[in-house]
Amino acid sequence: MRRGCALRLMAMMFVQIMVFPVWFTTVVPYVQTLPGGHAWVPFYGMLMAIGMFASSVVCMFADRFLDSGKVLLLCNVTAAAALTGAFFTQNLYALAALLLLATFSIMPTWSLVSAVAMAHAPKEMFPYIRSCGSVGYAASAVFSIVAIKYFGFSDFETTPWIFVCGAATALLAAVAALFLPPTPPRAKGEPLSIVDALGLRAFSLLKDRSVLVLSIILLLSMVSFQWYMGYNTMYLQEAGFKYLALTNNIGQIAELFFMMLLPFLIKKLGFKYSTLLGVGALAFRYASFLVASKTGVHACDFGGILVHGLIFGMLIVGVQMHMAEIAPAALRNQAQGFVMFLAAGLGGFLSVGIFNSILSANRLPSGNHDWSVPFGVALAIALAAGMLFLFLYKDGAKNAPETRSEK
Predict the structure, then answer these.
(1) At what angle do helices 372-392 and 209-238 cross, to 10 degrees?
(2) Which residues on adjacent β-strands are paired with residue 369?
(3) If DSSP states are collapsed to H, E and C, what string results for 364-391?
(4) Using CA atoms, how far apart are residues 23 and 15, in angstroms rounded to an integer?
(5) Where are the alpha helices (DSSP H) in 307-371?
(6) pTM (2 decimals)?
(7) How far, in Å, CA of 235 to CA of 41, rounded?
(8) Higher per-residue pLDDT: 34 or 399
(9) Domains and CATH numbers, the chain
(10) Are 82 and 105 in contact (CB under 8 A)?
């Protein structure tokens, strides 16, 4: 693979993954500062999940009509405009509409940028390119650190300035998209049905039993995993942590180490047992949080955060790599969209639906929550997913023809 191409892919992955957490990781604390904002917390907890429902359609568009780099450009420009609008309004309905538009524009880019990377890089190179996204996610906390530490902006994370930072990052991602190697639509000119127009063709992969079982287990695991993505900053705030984004992003920093190990672990353990390792790490996370919520020992909180990379690497990146191998070339973007739809879309939607009701039932008179109950439920779900995957999954999917560009 040519160095110039690799550098462009790494730069794009870095800035593209950064766009969302710049503002999303602290949007719930910000919304709670607005009059009536507490009632909107469930909506923002589901925002990522709702946004992922756009992934299938946008990825279908990239498969059939337009170069993936140009689709990324359009998505980022739209997101920047929506986030700029969010900065100027405190109307809860207008804010919700603008952030929904921003999320519909941003979330499909996570699938697209992965598909572009896998279209131009050897399989073993992808984890290293994807690790740049982990760096980008962690680097999103820089805005908060600079504002709080060097400008004395102590309440930065609960102000609308988070949207300005998000808009600026989206514009940077739009510029980076201009320098991507060409990735033309592989299914251009093929007949288009309603199923194709809705981006649902990737669901045909479920005809393979191994893909069906994998999808069910991924969805079940994500019900547990996505609760962390939506509500962990709220937990950290109630637990007394000061730098919410920075503390949460320690997991992304540790993710770099696990991403470097990913090709080795998959080769050594095989896809099934490396995936089980990720599910085991998910169970470890919630066991650690459960202990911390009972004892107040913050070392356990950090233990649960630090395994983020092992969970994400094995359960999402590993599955993305597997789907890239078995999906037909004409469905490659949609296959990535399908993985993210399950992981952050439907999984996130179910997660918030389940855990928001649990949190509401465990609200304390102080306004904080008894977090031991949701952590216990999340632990039980992770353990159930691991046991089902161990006994039901058999890797029987056949590899699809693979061609990669080295432009």
Answers:
(1) 160
(2) 363
(3) CCCCCECCHHHHHHHHHHHHHHHHHHHH
(4) 14
(5) 308-312, 318-326, 332-340, 347-361
(6) 0.74
(7) 13
(8) 34
(9) 3-184+204-392 (1.20.1250.20)
(10) yes
